[in-house]
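User: You have something folded?
Assistant:
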Amino acid sequence: MKWKESLLVLMTILSVALMACTKSDGYVYQFTEKNVVEIGLDLTAELVAEGVMLVNHKFPWGANSLVIEMSNSDVVLIDTPYTYDATKELVEWIKSEVGDERTIVAINTGFHFDNLGGNGYLIEQGYKIYSTSQTVDMIYEKGEPSRAWFLEHVKSFSDKKYYETYQNLAYVKASDLGNTTDANMSEWTESIIKLMDKYDEEMVKYLIPGHGKAGTIKLLDKTLALLLEK
């Protein structure tokens, strides 16, 4: 239950409060205008909104991350690729796009390796990593021993506010059920219903699942239908 509550809180923070800016703010986005960029082996980036790149790491199976340019010029990485090397490639690509002087921070939305597999590289480079206290608890309770050393580097969201909304872009976990080993199915259902009650198509322009293609808020309908089949 705890990690599902954590996920709901984080989805709410990111959908209501994760902000970069619009052109009217005077900020000039520097990410490529190409639709899809091949960053490395099994690693691609796709421009889904101004200043927002959807990163997909296809190894061992497709998982999504987001890279967002903020209006203060910081770059936020939401979840890492699976591996140290892929995360290194991604960060080097980000720097090639926006410059070495940018501050890069990371947000882990969960405790599986499709959320934090590249944390080791980020820590070596001195980048700050943010998450909820519940996610940190789950690394202790459920994570592999090798993950526990991440804990001293994962910061509380209260340390710095990245709570501003990027237009109508939401980052939400997978639109299908996927790996349910750690899932609380009843709480998951309630969380989806709460999101559907709180947000509509006018409020959320894009919905990014943890796995699979970007879509609209209608992806929640698919998730709910799958949950109700269980």
Confidence is low (pLDDT under 50) at residues 1-24, 157-169, 171-176. Residues 1 and 187 are 6 Å apart (CA to CA). The chain has one domain: 2-165. The helical segments are 2-17, 84-98, 113-116, 119-124, 133-142, 185-198, 219-229.
